[in-house]
């Protein structure tokens, strides 16, 4: 089974996670419009298109504000590599969230 961002990053912000009450539930863990993309639960394997996720312990802003840092993220690179050649382009993921 493919692992979601909260499993790989061990942030504890998934529903019921150890940090969910203190830091809030991560929007990637609840974004149902991306459920199943890249074999993940909700946006768990497309977190880079969801505003409000965390990176380095800090909440990230909008997609436009966070894209550069997300493209450098090890998890992003892992998903792209695992899904090659069937990786869903970011532009298509954004369309799914409208």
Distance between the termini: 28 Å
What is the helix/strand order?
Answer: HHHEEHHH
Whole-number count of domains: 1
SS class: mainly alpha
Which range does the strand content fall in?
Answer: under 5%
Task: Sum up the overall morphology in one term.
Answer: globular
Give structural notes:
With 98 residues, the protein is mostly helical. The protein has one domain. The protein contains six helices and two strands. The chain has a two-stranded antiparallel sheet with strand order 1-2. It is globular, with a radius of gyration of 12 Å.
List keywords for this structure.
98 residues, mainly alpha, two-stranded antiparallel sheet, 4% strand
Summarize the structure.
With 98 residues, the chain is mainly alpha-helical.
